[in-house]
Structures are given as C-alpha cells and as structure tokens.
C-alpha cells in the first residue's frame, strides 16, 4: 500500500471516530437530562407523600423544564390543585390536553379534559373594566407583576385564590392600585373598575404657574409699550417747545408755553426709562414661563434708574 493511500485511510478512520464520538455525546446529553427529570419526578412524589405540597410542585416544575412531557404536566396540575392553586392547575390541564393530542395519547388527553371540566366552575376570575374616560395615553393595567393587554380588558381572567394586587399607571398621572382578597371565593367573578387617573400635582402646578407668568408678561409688556408711547409724545412736545431764555431775549417768533422744554424733556426721559423696563420685564416673563414638563428656575432682576443725565434700564438674570 502506497504512502498516500495510507494517509487517506488514516484520515477517513479519524473522521469516523470524531463523528461517532459527537453522536454518542449528543445522545448522552438528552439521556442525562431525561434521567435528571425522572429523578425530580420521584423526589416530587416523595414530597407529596410527606405532605410538602409546595416543594413537590417546585420539583415537578423543574422536571417539566428539563423534559416536556404530558404525564409530568398532568402530575404538576394535580399538585397545583392540591395546593389550592386552581387557575394554575386549570392551565396545566389545558396544556396537558393539547400536548397529549399532539402526541396522539388520546386517553391522557381525555383525562386532562375531564380535569378541566371539573375545575371550570370553581375558578376565581377577575374582570378589568376600563371606561373610555380612564383610557389616558400610555395606560398600563397590571394584575400582580403581569401586564394585562388592552385586548383582555373586559374579559374574565382566571386567578389563583389569594390576595391579588391590581394597579394602573401612566406617565404624567398618579398611579392607582388596590388589593383584592379572593380566598374562599370559588366560582366568583371579581369586577375591577379602573378609575380615571389624576394628573401629577407637579405637572398641574407648573402649568398653572406658566400661564400666570405669560399673563403677567403680556400685561406688563403692554404697560411698557404705553410708557414708550408717552415718552415719544413728550419728546415731540419738547422739541416744539421754545426755551424760556430765548423768549426772555425777545425772539420774534417766541410764544411762551405753559410747560417748559426742560420739564417735557424730563418727562420723556422718565417715560422711556420706565416703559423700557416694563417692556423688558414683560418679554422676560413670557419667555421664561415654565411649562408642564420643563420646570426650570430663572432668576431675574430688572432695575430702572433715572438721573439728570438720562434714564437707564438694567436686566440681570439666568436664562
């Protein structure tokens, strides 16, 4: 046999070994999982005989997680029923029925269906009634930790007997919640009416404060505009008035006014200063008005000063 043929044969033999080892490992993994699942079932049966129902249900759940089997699911439903968890048992029996039908285990499917029929009238149900007035944007309704979709509002939802926590929430609104005691109420249906959620206090007060700011800004700015208009009038009268000293020198076209030019000039300066300050304040109040979702703090100081040399408006603040 040539050297090349030997290498080819060796390669084929090595590949066959690798494939057989992988196949054996793949078969060993499910076998190990099945064995562990069967061990959990045996432990669960022993716990049931010892009266430790909750611990037994946990073992049945672990076995079902490792290996999905209709027989184990039926045992889990029986365990739930013994624990008083009627809704959980009902769901387990329904799943057993569907799985047994898929695997063509007709006797097991019929047994599960009979268990469903027995539990049906004993189920405790919760119905969420959500009026249109309560359906604010982003409304989330919860039963315990589970979200109830809008498609299930108004429908009966089976629950295990016990304390049930129901709640509703939405962004920008105060959350609502309540507790329902469904113990010793087999077959009853509890109706939960979700009220209209109240807006959050901070958002409402901020919105009211914003409207107050804008109203004050419009009023203040309007008064400021009126002051600037008065300043313009006084300034025009000042330019047309004759100076008292010119009249004293006997100017030919001089007509003495009751109000002197200096007085009108001072009035124009004061009007311009105050009008400008009020207008600036009004604009600032309107601009910095807080909105419902933006509560910013603005510090503003407006100062108007008047001197013989003229008026001055000074604005300081954080924008």
Distance between the termini: 93 Å
Number of strands: 9
Number of domains: 3
How are the strands of the biggest sheet laid out side by side? 3-2-5-6
Order of helices and strands: HHHHHEEEEEEEHHHEE
Morphology call? rod-shaped
Beta-strand percent range: 15-25%
Quaternary organisation:
single chain
Helix run count: 8
Helix share of residues? 55-70%
Largest β sheet strand count, sense and barrel closure: 4 strands, antiparallel
Uncertain runs with pLDDT below 50, 5 residues or more?
4-29, 295-311, 313-319
Overview of this structure, please?
- With 319 residues, this protein is of the alpha+beta class.
- It has three domains: 30-120, Alpha Horseshoe (Serine Threonine Protein Phosphatase 5, Tetratricopeptide repeat), CATH 1.25.40; 124-199, Carboxypeptidase-like, regulatory domain (Immunoglobulin-like, Sandwich), CATH 2.60.40; 202-317, no CATH class.
- The protein is built from eight helices and nine strands.
- The strands form three sheets. Strands 3-2-5-6 form a four-stranded antiparallel sheet, with no helix packed on it. Strands 4-1-7 form a three-stranded mixed sheet. Strands 8-9 form a two-stranded antiparallel sheet.
- The radius of gyration is 43 Å and the shape is rod-shaped.
- Mean pLDDT is 76; it is low at 4-29, 295-311 and 313-319.
